[in-house]
Every structure is written in structure tokens, then in C-alpha cells.
Specification:
Elements (H helix, E strand, L loop, with lengths): L1 H21 L6 H25 L3 H33 L3 H6 L27 H22 L8 E12 L9 E8 L2 E8 L15 E7 L2 E7 L2 H39 L4
Antiparallel strand pairs: 1-2, 1-4, 2-3, 4-5
Helix pairs in contact: 1-3, 2-3, 5-6
Length: 270
């Protein structure tokens, strides 16, 4: 049992890393097959239980498949944490894959791979700092543009609108728009609104149905589904929080990089 647990929780993450290295850094095919295989196996087991108990085999199959996907995904996240721990300690994953299980505790005496971090090297590669900085800039820009309401920064009003038809763009590609008609300021207006701007997870009404829209009071032809303002603000707030998080990670990784370089200069390796 101890050897089995070691293979699952220590050797497995190391072997997964080596498989990724051997394929140029891409996701190993064996991991994808394992992900799908575990989902299919658990789905089949749940479906068999459903047949024996007289329940819906289809519902039970999808429940089991999702459970299998989540289980392998959780293990993959755990594998990432294991590899991070090995990186911080300066121990190559090849150490645990190549050595017998009985010598695993002496892994630190095995030479590391040239591509892996050696003891004394900076804990954080410079590329990681650049990555976090880039992500901070991307999320900040996304938050800025998401917060920009354009013509909808003006005072808005709401009204029930009748959906006349769908407009999916040329050839059915692109964003779906709805041609709607509503009354504002005592007049009827016909315009198009973007169907994806809805906040609720509900089905877009069929032509002839009604939907609340919000429009610019001074120009009712500028309209969109009601609730889009709150959705835009929520998206902008989420993107800004991500940018702040990435900025903090940039500062922390840069500090760790500089500190490790300072220590390496103060204590040069023989």
C-alpha cells in the first residue's frame, strides 16, 4: 500500500512532468487518455448502479463522468504543487522516477537534470516575472474597456420590448442580435440589441415574446437588454481584481528573484 501511494502521489507527478518534457512541454497524451478513461470508467460504473437500482442510466453516467474528470483534475493540481515543492528544494523529478522506491529519501544526492533548477539557482525564473507582469497589464486593460459603457454612460430608462426576429450575422456566424420594438417618450422605436448581454441564465425569448431593454433617454435607438450595466460593472470589477492579484504576484516573484540572486552572490558556489 505504501508503494502504491508513493507511485500515485510522488512518482506520478514526477513522471507526468518528464512525459511533458519529452513532448516539448505539451500536455502528455497519456494524461488526456487517463482523464477521458477515468471519466468513462466512473460513468459506466454509475450507469451500472443506475440499471441495478432502476434509476436513469443516462443521468447517472454523466454524474459519474463528471466525478471522474474532477478527480483527475484535482490530482493534476496536486501534481503541480508537488513539482513546485521539488523546484524550491532543487530536486529534479527524474530523481524519484529513476531511483528505486527504497532510496527515495536519498534523492537529494542524485545529480539534477541540466534543465531543472540546481541548488543555489534563483527560486523564481525571470520569465515568470514577465508573465505575471503581462497578465496584470492584460487584465487591467480588459477591466478598463469593460467598464467603458460608451453611449450608455448617459441616463437610462427601461421598457418592455417585443422581439421581432433574430439576426445571427452573415452565414449564422458572429454575435446574435435581436431586432426589437418598444415604446419610449410616446413613440415606437425599432432597433437591435445584443442577445449575449443578458445577465440571467435564461433562454432568449422567441420572436413575438417580450424582453426588458434599457435605452438612452435622449436617443432610444441606443438600447440593450436590461441588466447589461450591472453585468459590465461586474466583469470590470473581476478583471481589475485579477490585475491587482497579478501585480502582487509580480512584485513577490521579483522580490524572490532578487533575494535569491543576492544570496547566491553572498555565498558563491564552489
Amino acid at each position: 500500500m505504501r508503494r502504491l501511494l508513493r507511485r500515485i502521489f510522488l512518482v506520478g507527478p514526477c513522471r507526468l512532468y518528464q512525459l511533458g518534457e519529452s513532448t516539448g512541454g505539451s500536455v502528455p497524451l497519456v494524461f488526456v487518455l487517463g482523464l477521458l478513461g477515468c471519466a468513462a470508467a466512473l460513468g459506466g460504473l454509475f450507469a451500472l448502479i443506475a440499471v441495478l437500482t432502476g434509476a436513469s442510466a443516462e443521468d447517472y453516467f454523466f454524474t459519474g463522468a463528471i466525478a471522474g474528470l474532477l478527480a483527475i483534475t484535482a490530482w493534476a493540481l496536486y501534481a503541480v504543487l508537488v513539482l513546485v515543492g521539488l523546484w524550491l528544494r532543487g530536486i529534479s523529478p527524474a530523481t524519484y522516477v529513476d531511483l528505486p522506491a527504497s532510496t527515495g529519501r536519498h534523492a537529494s544526492t542524485t545529480p539534477d537534470e541540466p534543465t531543472w533548477r540546481r541548488r543555489g539557482d534563483p527560486l523564481v525564473p525571470a520569465g515568470l516575472i514577465a508573465f505575471f507582469a503581462l497578465m496584470a497589464a492584460v487584465f487591467f486593460a480588459d477591466g478598463y474597456f469593460s467598464a467603458d459603457q460608451g453611449p450608455f454612460e448617459a441616463p437610462l430608462a427601461t421598457a418592455p420590448a417585443t422581439i421581432l426576429r433574430y439576426d445571427d450575422g452573415p452565414g449564422g456566424f458572429g454575435d446574435r442580435y435581436l431586432e426589437v420594438r418598444f415604446t419610449a417618450n410616446g413613440r415606437e422605436y425599432t432597433t437591435k440589441v445584443k442577445a449575449e448581454d443578458r445577465v440571467e441564465e435564461s433562454r432568449v425569448p422567441d420572436p413575438g415574446g417580450t424582453q426588458q431593454v434599457e435605452y438612452v433617454i435622449t436617443n432610444p435607438t441606443q438600447a440593450r437588454p436590461a441588466g447589461a450595466t450591472q453585468s459590465k460593472r461586474s466583469d470590470a470589477h473581476f478583471s481589475r481584481n485579477l490585475s491587482y492579484t497579478c501585480a502582487i504576484l509580480t512584485a513577490l516573484s521579483a522580490a524572490a528573484y532578487l533575494l535569491s540572486r543576492h544570496r547566491r552572490r553572498a555565498d558563491p558556489q564552489p
